[in-house]
Each structure stands twice: as structure tokens, then as C-alpha cells.
Amino acid sequence: MRWGMVIDLAKCTRCHACVAACRIEHFLPLRVTWPRLIALETDNGYDVDVSTYPVRCNQCKDAPCVDACPTQASYKREDGIVAIDHDKCFGCRYCVIACPYQNRTYLSRKRNPNYFPEHAQTRFEKMGKKLYPHQVGTTEKCNFCHERIDAGREKDLKPGIDRDATPACVNTCQPRALTFGDLDDPNSNVSKLIREKSGFVLHSEYGTEPSVYYIDYKLGGNPSNKAPVEAQTGSHIQHLSTVYAPSKPKLAKKNAD
Amino acid sequence: MANREVVYSTCKSCHGGCGVKVTKEDGVVVHIEGNPDSLTGGTMCSKGLSSIQHIDNPYRLKYPMKQVGKKGEGKWERISWDEALDTIADKMKAAIKDYGPHTIAISQGTGRGYNRYTMRLARSLGTGNAITPGYVCHSPRLGLYALVTGYGRLYCDYHGWGGEFPKTQIMWAKQLEISSADSEMCYWYMRSLDYVKNLIIIDPRASAYATRANLWIQPRPGTDCALALGMMNVIYEEELWDKEFVDNWTFGFEELRERVKDFTPEKVSDICWIPKEHVIEAARMWAIDTPGTIQVGSSLERQANCGHTLRAITCLMGLAGNIERPGSMVSWVLPDTGLIEDFNLELPITDEMKSKIIGGDRFKMGATRTCNPDTMVKRLLAGDAPIKVWFSVGGQQIVHMANTKEVVAAIERVEFMSHTDLFMGPMAEAADIVLPAAHWLELDDVYDMHPRFMIEAHNKVIEPPGEAMSDAWIFNEIGKRVVPDKWWDTVEDMLDYQIRRGEGPDGGPLKWKDFSEKLVSGCWGPDQVYYKYKTDFWREGGGFPTPSGKFEFKSNHLESLGYDPLPVYAEPGESPVSTPDLFKEYPLVMSSGYRQPFYFLGQYRNIPWLRSFMEFPTCQLHPETAKLYGVEDGDIVWIEGPRGRIRQKLRTFPGIKRGVLMATANCFYPEEPAKGYHGVFISNPNVLTSNDHLDPMYGSPDLTCLLCKVYKAKDEELKEEVFRNEEYGFVPPHSQEDM
Amino acid sequence: MNARTPRQWMVTHEWMIKPMAQVEWIEGKGLLVWLAEVFSALGTGLYLVAIFFSQSHPLAAFWGGLLGWIGIAVFKLPLHLAYLGKPWRFWRSFPPFSNAWKTSWFARGIVFTMIFLGFGVVQLVLQGIIAYGATAGAGVDAANWIFMILAGVFCVLTAVYCGFAMSYCKSVPFWNTGLLPFVFLIMGVADGLALIMGVGMVTGQELIGTAESVTRILLIVNALLIITYLINANYQSTTAELSVKELVRGHVAWVFWLGIVLLGILVPLVISVVSYFTEQEASTGLLIFAICCHTVGAFSLKYGVLKVGIYRPILPKAHAY
Ligand code: SF4
Ligand code: SF4
Ligand code: SF4
Ligand code: SF4
Q1: Which of A141, A238, A251, B88 has the fewest CB atoms lying closer than 10 Å?
Q2: What digits encode the pLDDT tens for the residues B527-553?
Q3: B433-436 and B416-421 as β-strands: parallel, antiparallel, unpaired?
Q4: Across the interface, which of C104, C169, C318 has its CB nearest the CB of A69?
């Protein structure tokens, strides 16, 4: 099992929701962002390319950050996630420098002011200190929401399929540009996407074997606009519909009046 | 074990509608995420998620206050709710007695949740002078749809309920992908992209999907009408129209052919600064690959030819038969709770009220139910004081109206103004009394944004800060004090009333308590009805609810009002073509149509998480254009026009049309002092816009098409706090912490 | 473009699109890393040179070695620890608490340093006995030899590990080259030679001549090495090229030209070459001046190299990088 993410560059809208979701999920300090968006805006004279690359820790298979860490605070989990033990990390930032993808942030005091500097902490922040304490003086990064994955798997939920076992950023993405799943399973949603849409990783030449893949393609050109039955009936939302299920035919009539 | 509690609600951080799941622990909101069991599948954007920073936000207004200095000085004193409400009510009563109800203006912002309250308050008081941003956002669209189809609400059917998704989608000056604004929801739009054959983006600036769309057209700002006429020309020339629909259900087909005859692709290419192939390709895709939808953005409504632009676009829909087909432009069958706007429509606007509407004599399409704000500004400046009492809620007229200098001068002349808001902003500083409003996490209300196919419930998650109250409560209290027979004892009574037509669990009228648990009242899937014009839905025997019973390419009604019955193209008031001399001095076409996904109009610059994404209002220029004018990426530049100049940060961006400068609109700085109205003159593009040249139908000014020049700001010209503070990105604005 | 503007906020348009310089190891508290590395070079260099003179000039060798040892024990290590976010957890980096030394150069560095300090202290005691003791027997001499070799090996390792640590960073192409450890080592030895001359002046032992002649060669080797390094980096990748530009023409150019080239190499070289041709030993004042210059050079070299550590941008498609 190796958890991975596929990021759809064609769909991402640069909305920043993934960043906000991660901030909420992990009570991130004000100046720390685990996932980031990188704008690629080029014009080669023929073609303009305006893209957004959502980046977060690649959970590299051969992770230079883990090798670099002198305390073994950064370690690799069974499921491929690169995690940090914040009780071990002594804040040398060697990993920050060594990560070729720049996905680590050292939490200095300066990066950790109150959300409203010069004002009292909000209740959300205070609660965060309890629910998800961050240690100033240690290094942080995206952890693929392994808290969610672990909690979900305990309840027999499937990461990438069941929301409560899936990373927060994946859940919130409106165009569904983020897909999560098991890279080792050739039939998983992520493996399929990588195969069908020729997924690629950033800087494969570093040889770190990232678990975050990207896909890119042109929108449009879909062969059929026929709606599948679930879409037609709205089956997944039908139970939300018209408040206390009055007799349906009456409805259209009533509005026509 | 900590005490966990989950509350479901509905987001209103843009026009909203996304289902929200809020988790509280020991009474503190510790988590916000999308509600998976909702119409939006558990997704939310950064604005909605960052709502969490509205809670305990030290800059929130907490108590009613009165201005004790001069307007705009920022000297405030706390008062009680009773004093505040009584003062406002007394002023209103006195104005009604002394000058007549029309001298009261009720104004609102983009209208999230309080549309129906502002309108009901205005009508119950007897004034037609409601001030809304509608005339530069959404109203022209609705009015023109109504004119052409008889039904004012045409939506893009992204849902597949009729069996088909749109095959061709046009995003016209619109970034639906970044918010659920106006009338659609981004979630559904983006799902439908998996079925689209042609995605056409019409935007001078690359929005998120532009460079991956099938066709991306970059017209010169303000020339969209010509593009629509050109596309129709191609459809006529190549005989691509929908024969069945046109023959049976339309009126004025031949007259329209005559009108668009001149607009050959060559001519349109000259006007719009685009290759002629783009016009032809777009027309073919649109007319051949049906069904299709056109998503119109409000930038088109911020132009002084907006009436005809939207008319032309609506005709384009008709020519391709993209009306009422599954996967085309559809008007929704409403949920069983009915048209929520009946809440205000049930109070009729009398002829007497109509006759007193400011601008009503001139803008016969726009100023029939609400006043024309620009005319009001001119009259206030002329000294004939048409408005004595102004009750303002939410909106930042100072920011979004053309010609900021004049707007500020005019508003300062209003004898008495109150403003209701979450934070201190330019409008609050111009008021005599400010009332603290509750955020959507802090109130119970019916969520409705234009009649979509559903309404939803906002459920109170936590108590508002200090003494802040919900909009519904504030309106009801004012209403009760001035016209008690039109308002309710309690907010809950009022909410019950709004949804009474729904069916409750006991078979009786639906009550708020039950609705708030159920969250949604909607109509979708097989319950939606298509091809309404082929049934008795609108008209016995079929047809559209228009005077002719047909889809009207030509409108005799418009003619009777003194307008051209067919769409016509007109250049913007200031453009390379209409004012060539001015163009020599101001060689860039400027638009203020740039919106960021994490701000909603003037809002959220005081939410740290959102401000972190873009500290400064930013303008964009093509790298080559920037080079031409000697400015560089990252510079703070002056953008100067005939009426003034502003500073924004420059980003060179290859996705923008050469020769066009795209500025961020609606910007003020919450952290700047009250004096200067929170920095409204520093970066707000409306300092540059003109309120002299207005759309004849709607009175909309040219906010998104004007001329400017650009040059680098010198270091010594960047004295304001906002340019200096490096440490925090932004400094804490006015706070009530110590009050 | 300013490659080194540290952003407080996340800026979609700037972060890692443009090449950005690392700041963790050179700005703010990061300056401690720089100082630690400088003391590492000076300390190890001095110690190595000192044991080289162990036989011929035992007194200078003792004092030089001691000063080198102190540079490591009192400056380098504590500075490094002070830099840590959680200094009191320093023990987590070495066995038996961690096996990180298997992969981490940083962990290895700490282990090397500690071992060196251990062997070094023994060797210094022995050296002290030789230098001052009346009864320097063969046993002491032999022991000194053994410990000299042991300490020397770990001293070299201590001198090179930070170069390896940096060259391990694929993210910073300018550092990511095998030459770096050697530049650091050679430069350290040259610094050591300069310093030992100072020691020699105090202890009155005539080693200046020998030191001078070795310095002359080392300085030339070093200059060549640096030139090779820069040329190599210049062709290695666009980002490394940018680092080179930044170093020789950018914001830190003054450090490079003034600190590294002029004070670190040219001045000492000119002084020693002049003294070679005039066949006279340079005056004490001039020597002290040369030593100072040399030391400034040591500080400058590390500063410059750390400062222009520019990350390779993240997007492979971002053209030009
Ligand atoms: S939430 Fe999705 S669409 Fe938005 S920025 Fe993140 S990846 Fe892109
Ligand atoms: S992306 Fe960076 S931090 Fe993440 S595993 Fe790879 S090297 Fe480590
Ligand atoms: S900062 Fe922490 S996690 Fe990173 S290398 Fe140092 S000890 Fe390991
Ligand atoms: S996977 Fe989790 S930790 Fe990583 S960016 Fe997404 S939300 Fe943040």
C-alpha cells in the first residue's frame, strides 16, 4: 500500500480552497502553509499556458528529507507517507534545505503569531493548541492527513473513497481536481488516472519517486453529452429534495400557477 | 471526553449555497467543511472555509455606534440598540412626514440573504428608491431575458436532469469556476465539463480554463455586443439557426437578420481586436453543437451598452434554439416553497412610488423598481437633496460606484445615514449610525439567491460577537417601528411566513423549525420541466409569456419605451474608437473586471487567511505591453486616467490581451484609517471611472471599459501604511477591543 | 529580479516560480550556521596544520592544535546547537538514540566532531607533554602518533562533512557538486596555515618560512579550485549559473571580490610572493595583516556560498530554468 494523489491541472481553478482546508484541518499557524499553489504562466509566442500547480509534500518513496534528518524525526511509514515526529525533531532545518521540492517549513516564532497579530488569540486558535499542538522550533509539512487516514481505517473506511479517511484538501476541492488512493493497487482510482491520462511527477530526474502525480489535458472534446441515469434522476440528492416529500406531480403544477 | 457537536448550514460567503458542516467542541467552532450530504457534495472554496476567521475577529463591529465627529472622521461612540433603532425610525418617520417616503433610500450590497428584506422595507415604507448594485450586476441580464423570453430567469442547465449536458458552453466574461456568484453554482458547472464538447471562453484575460478550452476569444473590453452580433451574422450567413425553434417560436427573425448583416466577421475582427476566425468558429460551435449554454458575467453589465449587449447575447441563445432544451438555457421550476421573492413582491410598487424613483424618467428599463444611483449622486451634488434618510446595509456604494470622488462628496451631503455591516468600511465611516450585523455562521435565515431550483437554511452555529444581530432582525425591528402592520413580532414568525407554502411534516404549512433541520427545499431530477413553451406552463396553448407570445428577437415594447427594438452596438464612452484623442494620451484600454477567488467584491481583506493570498490589489499587463511602458513585474504602478490615478501592484501576465490593463476592482484597505475612507482612493479603479456616460436602458456606467496609462510609482509616493508594513502584510484596522 | 526576497505570505506567483535563495541557513538565526561552519573550517584547518608541525615545532603544534580544538569545541559545536530549534534535544542525533548517521551527513558530522574532540583532547595532552615535558619518552611519542592519526582522520571528516551535507542537496544545484567538500577542506587548511604562523610568532618557533611556502602553493591551488568550481557550476545548470552570477555580480559580489578574492587570496598571496622574491621574511605587522585578511577570507567564503544557495524552481516546465 502506498498512498498517492493525482492532481488534475486541467481542472484546478487556483481557488486556494485546498490551502484553506489544510489550515483548518491542522490549525496551521498563521504563516505556515503546507500545500501551496504555484502559478505557471508562459507564452512561448504561439501558445499561452496559464496553469496552477497545487504542490504539497510528495511523500517521496526515496525521500531525501528522511535521509537528511539527523534525528530520525522524519520517517517513512509503512503506507508510504513521510511523517515527522515532532517530539524528536530538533529543528536543524537540514530537511528544509534538502527537500528538492521545498515542501517543508520550519516553524519559527515569527511564523507563529496570533491570527490577528497584536490581538488576543481566537477561540479557534486556543482550541487548536489543544487539539493539534504545533511545536515551535520544529519542522512541518503536509502529512497527507495521516490522522484522517488512520482514524478512517480504524473504522474500515477507504481513503480516497470515504470522506472521513480522505485528506481534507481532496474533500473540499470543488472541481474535484484532487484524487487520492493507493498507488500500489493497479485498479485504484489514482492508478487508473495515471495510466489513462499519462500522469507525471515533478522533477522525476531527482529520483525521489514522488507519490503525487499530475495529469494535464485539454478540456472539451468529450464524445457524448448524454447524462448518465444517476445524473438524470439526481439520485444522490433526491433524498434532500422537496422538504417533506409532498406528492411530486403537484409540484410542477403549483409553480405554473 | 470533549463535547462535540455538529451543525449543518449553508454558506453565504459568495452568493453562496454550498452545504456546510460545522463542528464545535465545547462550544468552540473547530472545523468547517462542506456538507457531504448536500447539493455541493461536501466541497467548499477558500472564502467559505475561511469564515472561521470571522469568529473572534477583533475587527468585527460589536455594538451599535454613533458618529460623534464629522463624517469620515472615524469618531464613534457606543450606543444602545434602542437608541440606534429609535433614532433611525424617528428620522424615517420625520422624512415621510416632512418630505414624503421617497426621500428615504434603502441600499444594499450584492445582496446575500437580505435582498428581499431591503425591498420589502422600501416598499413597506412607500419608497421606490432602493439602491442596489443590481444595475451593474445581474439586473440587466434578468431584465433583458425577461424582455426577450418573457421570463426573467434563464439559467444554464449544467445538471443533466433532462438527459443531456450542454455540448457547447460559453463563459462570457465570467469566472464561474471560482465562486457560486450570480445565479449558478460552480460545483455543477465543473461537473458538467466532463461532458462538454466545446468550451468557449470569452474574456480578455485568461481565466482558469482559458488556455485549455477549445476556443478562447479575447475581445477588447466593451465590444462584446459586436462579437455577439458577428456570431449571429455568421449563423445567418451559414444558415445554422435552429429551424424548428425559429420558425415556430420566435418573433422578429428577419428584422434581426437585417440588423446583423453589417457585422461581418471582418468588421467584428476590427472592432474587437480579434481574429475573424474566432467569430466564425465560435458561431459554428454554438449553433451546430447544441444544446449549449452561455454563462454571462457581470462585467458585461458594467458597461454603458449593457442593455444591448445582453439583448444580443439573448438573441444568440434563441437563434441556436438553446432555450428550454435540456442542457441549454432553462428557467427553473421552483421548489414547493414557491418564489421566495414574493416576500417583497407582494407589496406592490405603486405608480406614485414609481414616479418618484430617481432616474426613472431616463432609464426606463433599470430604474423602474430601484433608483439609478449615479443620477442620485449627481442630484445630491447639485444640491437638490432627493434623499434625506439613507438606510444602508452591507453594500459599499462608495467603492463600487463610478467616480469615487463624486460619490464620497455626494454621500457626505446626505443628512442622515445608517449603515449595517460586519466590519468598519467606507460606507460605515460615512454613516451617522452603524449597526453591527451577524455573520452567516451566527444567524438563522432562509438562504435564497435569485430563484434557483432550491432554497436552503442558514442555521445559527454560534452567538454573534457583542451585540451584533442578524439582518433579518434588524430589518424587522426597523419595519416594526415605522410600519408595524407590514412586519412581524419575531424573526421566527417572519421566517415561517416566507416558507409557509411548503408542506410541513404534519401536512400543514412548513415551519422554520422543521425547515432548518431539513436544510433544503428544492426541485430537481425528473421534477424539472423542460420545453415549457411547448406546454401550457406559461401560456394556454404554448408559447412564451411575452406580448407576442414568442421569443422576441425584436421587442415592440422596447420601441414603445423609445429604445431600439433590436440590438445595436455602441462603443464605450471612452475608447480608442470613440475618443481617439484621449486614447493618444491614455494608450491602454483598462478594465476592472479582475476578480480573485478568495475575495468577494469589497470583502475579506481583513480575513488573514484570505489576505495572505494577495496582499495588494493587483493589476495585470501583458509582459510585452509592460515592457513598452517601462514597468516591471512586481512594481507598484500608477494607473492614471482623465479623472485621477490609483496605485496597484503590477503583475505581468501573458494571459492578458496586449494593450489592455486589467485592474482589481472593489478595493479599499480595512487597515487604513477612517480618514480617506479606509484608503478607498489608493487603489480603487472607480476613482478613474466616469458616471457621465450611462447605459440608456439601465443607467450602468462604463466600469469595465475605459482608458488609462501606467507608470511606476516612486518610492516616496508609497507612504501609506499598507505599502510600508512588511512584517504582517497588513496592519490591524480599527478595532473595538477596548470599547 | 531579486532572488532573495523572503516572503512572509504565500504568494502564488512568486514562490518557486522564480529561483529563490535559501534563507534558513544564512538569515536571522541562520547566521549561526554560517559562523559554526567558519569555525569548523578554521578549527579543523588549524588542528590539521598543527599536527603537521608536531615533530618540528612541538610548542606551536601544541598551541595551534589546542586553539583548533577550542574552535571546534567552544565555538563550532555550541553555535550549531544554539541554532537548533530545540537545542536540548541535541542528543537525539547520535547513537544509541538514533541511527540517523547511516544516511544523514548532519548526524555524521556531529558524530565525527565528537569523536574528533575525544581523540583530540588525548592527543593534545600528549603533545603538551612533548612540548613542555622534560621526559618525553618514546612511548609518549608513539601514543601521540597514534592519536594524531586518529584525531587527524576525524578532523578531516569534520572538515569535509558540511561540504558533503551541502553537496547532498539536490535542491540547490550550486552546492550539489562533489567539489564543494574539497574547496572547503583546502581552504580550511590554508586558513590553518595562516593561523599557525600567528601561533608561531607567539611561541617563537621558526615555522613561518615553511608555512609560507606551503601557503603559497595552497593559495594558488585554492584559487584554481574556486575558479574551476565556479566555471563548473556555471555550466552545470541554469540555476547554478544564477548562483554564480549572484556571487560575482549580484548582491553578494562585494563579499566575493573583497572578502574571498582580495582579502582571502590576493593579499596573502602577494605578501608571501613578495617575501619569496625579496627572500626576506615579511615583517611581523605585514604577517599579522595577512593572517587577518586570510581569516576574513574564510568568513567570506562560507558566507558567499551559503548566501547564493538558490533553489531550483519546482516546475520542470517553467521555461528557462
Ligand atoms: S481546491 Fe482544487 S481547484 Fe482549488 S486550488 Fe486546490 S486543487 Fe485547485
Ligand atoms: S517532497 Fe520533500 S518533504 Fe516531501 S517526502 Fe519528498 S523530499 Fe521529503
Ligand atoms: S528539522 Fe527536524 S525533521 Fe528536519 S531534519 Fe532536522 S530534526 Fe529532522
Ligand atoms: S493532504 Fe492533508 S496535510 Fe496534505 S495538503 Fe492536503 S489537507 Fe494538507
Answers
A1: A238
A2: 889 999 999 999 999 999 999 999 999
A3: parallel
A4: C104
